[in-house]
Amino acid sequence: MPFNRKEWQQNNKEKIKECNKEYREKNKERIQEWREEHKEQRKEYDKEYREENKEKIKERKKEYYKENKERIQEQKKEYLKTDQSKKSHRISTWKQLGLISEDYDKLYELYINTNECDNCGIELVEGRYGSNKRCMDHNHRTGLFRNILCHNCNSIRPDYESD
Question: Distance between CA atoms of 103 and 106, rounded to whole angstroms?
Answer without folding.
Answer: 5
